[in-house]
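Journal club side-thread
Mid-discussion, someone asked how the predicted structure for our own chain would compare to the paper's figures. Pasting it here so we can look after the session.
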Amino acid sequence: MQGLIDCGKYKVTEVLSSHSGFEAALCSDVTVNDGTVYIVNEYSSMVYIRELLHLFCAMEKQRFRGFRGLITSSGSFSAVFVYRSGVPFAEYFAERSGDYDTNLGLADSLLRGALEFDLIDDRTAACGLTCENAVVNAAEGQVYFNMLLDPDRTAGANFRTELHRGVCGMAGDTDVGAENPGSVPEREPYEVPRQTAEGKYKKAPQEARCVDPFRKRRNVTWQRK
């Protein structure tokens, strides 16, 4: 974090993650005493710099929510984001079952936050859109993603699909736990009733709902005994 310290604007309060070529920390802005906490990702490996710097420049042009800009120095660059406090996503749902309306509201917030990642490239989105980065602010009824963007920790190639499964699990009648955050139960096909020629009702397969609107009435005869 030497480059961040040298700029004189931010003070490091806690190191969150560190390995060769990457470091993430919580920081405060010493020039503005407003209590805002920032998460800063510093990349000092030339491999990371060549791969990621232009992606963050594109993110800055897209005005990604919570992104406060880049800090460059000799041999490194840092990406600064607003940090959100809250209970870790998996921990929150492991300890609370919640009611349907609460889970539905959180699922909506989670999906809205995830859609923000459509503004940026898949490489960076896969680093940010992870369960580890998600936190629940119960007082606000919101789910936030803290942008700890470790280039070696990603959600995988199918990260968007896995997120959608997790949203379905939250909104449904299942528990979303730490060990199974995206489980969705198997449901039987929905069946609708239809009237038979004998005047009774029986269940019809789901496909029966799709009828031809141009079918002539004379081709269908309903009789009741």
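Post-session note: Strands lie at 10-19, 22-29, 37-43, 67-73, 76-82, 87-88, 134-137, 142-145, 192-195, 201-204.
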